[in-house]
Amino acid sequence: MMRVVVVSVMVLAVVGVGASSCNFNKCTDCIQTAKCVWCSNETFTGPSRCVSKDSADYVTFRLKCGNAIINPESDVTATEVDGESVQIKPQRATISQRVGDMQNLTMKYKHMKNYPVDLYYLMDMSQSMSDDKAMLTNLAYELVDAMKNITTKFRLGFGIFSDKIVLPYVQTVPWEELMKVCTNTEKEESCTAPFAFHNILPLTNDTAQFNEKVGSSNTTTNVDFPEGSFDGLMQTMVCKTEIRWQDDGFRLIVVATDAPFHIAGDGLLGGITEPNDMICHLDSDGFYTHSDKLDYPSVNQIHDMIERERMNLIFAVTATQESVYAHLTDQLPRASYGLLAQDSSNIVDLLSNKVYDIVTSVKVVPDIPIELQGHVDVNVRALNCPSTPCSDLKPDDEIHFLVSVKVISCPKDESFWNSTILLKLDGRKEALTIDLFLLCECQCEKKNTVTSAPECNNKGDLKCGVCECYEGWTGQKCQCEANSESGGDSTYEFQCRPDNTTTDVCSNRGECVCGLCVCNTMEEPKKIVGTYCECTNFLNCEGSDGRICSDHGSCQCNECQCDEGWTGKYCQCNNGSQDNCKPKG
């Protein structure tokens, strides 16, 4: 059953705004600043059509403007679907929000019993891992039993890797000669021809088949110490159909090895210059066909594919490689490592503990489009669990997350004013979808325009109470020709000064054209605005460290307006600790 929920939202101002900070000449510019409102009444006679709701002039402004005040209100609605298999509520939310507002939304997660798990065991098949392969064969049934204690919806797959089939990674002598060297007659073991990666068993719930495939797999030989695990890992992630990854559930890859790994650039040693293309290249027998054509993947490529395909990685490595894989897992999302015994005899405990930690944990991760980053901030905090991620969850446990959405500024590109943000359950398919509509424009500039308006001497359009002059005309009522000498005549200069106490025209930051200040254009992000070009977003706001408002506020009309929790002329003082604001000596 689907229902629409109107969510009660507390709308908070992120930044305080002074009266002079709202000195804009266009409605859209006005409402893109926190707390600023616009008067679209054509007969308005106040000093400025754009004022702050916090200013002392607001009461008079409201009386003069009447019901023509433009002040977009932020709101949110949420859509919920009920059912036993539903893990998150709501599933979708629609937020309309203007700059300076912050809205809170509660997201609920219910932990499900027997959440599906796919585990693909990717094993190093160099000869040094022969004991580990034998141990995995012996413990296969025990491993499956341990996994089924965590979830009954468990599938297992098996693949092996070695290295690229070119010098200097492997011997390229005829296989008959190489087999004499690598076959271990003492242990009655034979080895197989070198290969890069082989998908031996796609994901299945057939434990006997897994046991048989592991037992019948032969080791191989290579020359250099690092292995081609990244080739195998990339193919395991991108070959979704061949590996048989299911859409729902956890996707786990276990990489078992006693060696470090080759990375992008190492292929040059074998004359391979083509970068890895992150595409599936398996033949009908499951062998990787492009090991001699494509370079090894980079760490960044592995990182991106983990995110794209929602993978979880567990590196099961020997103690000699701990520092290598500790550093690697620090650079990858949802990746961890565990130490193998010399013969992998602890593999069941290692994997069951790692898988339990993954399956019984939850974390919400905001996915914000790159075009909105820096303009919108999303914070998620668990309300009823002490750790991040929330861990050791039992079936039917419910976690409440407080989602806070804050709009900092409007993107320049209007196409990004309507966007979608995802709040993903890390490593899972489920997500809360937020349709975000930024209130960055005045509808009266589009819908209620009067073309060739008499109020504009028929030389411009009336939009939101002000004239937008046609090309060649300027002035408050489009009464002046833009190229005429009267545009810069001193007769009009008194209109470009706030009062008679100053002789500065347009605050010395612009040009007086037909009685109106045209402010100088600065290199982004610097701006000069205001009726008399009196306001900037940079003057008097730069601290000794060169940062505007210490990165803890915004510069509004030559004055820092600090974020909550920060004070001082340059927002340099944290309310929680005043030590750095005390005079020295």
TrEMBL record:
Its main location: membrane. This is Integrin beta. One of its GO terms (molecular function) is integrin binding. One of its GO terms (cellular component) is cell surface. It comes from Petrolisthes cinctipes (Flat porcelain crab). It is a single-pass type I membrane protein. GO terms for biological process: cell adhesion mediated by integrin; cell migration; cell-matrix adhesion; heterophilic cell-cell adhesion via plasma membrane cell adhesion molecules; integrin-mediated signaling pathway. Residues 1-19 form the signal peptide. The lineage of its organism: Eukaryota, Metazoa, Ecdysozoa, Arthropoda, Crustacea. Keywords: Cell adhesion, Cell membrane, Disulfide bond, EGF-like domain, Glycoprotein, Integrin, Membrane, Repeat, Signal, Transmembrane, Transmembrane helix. It is found in: Cell membrane. It comes from the Eukaryota. PANTHER family: INTEGRIN BETA SUBUNIT (PTHR10082), INTEGRIN BETA-PS (PTHR10082:SF60). Pfam families: EGF_2, EGF_integrin, I-EGF_1, Integrin_beta. Residues 26-442 form the Integrin beta subunit VWA domain. Coiled coil: none annotated.
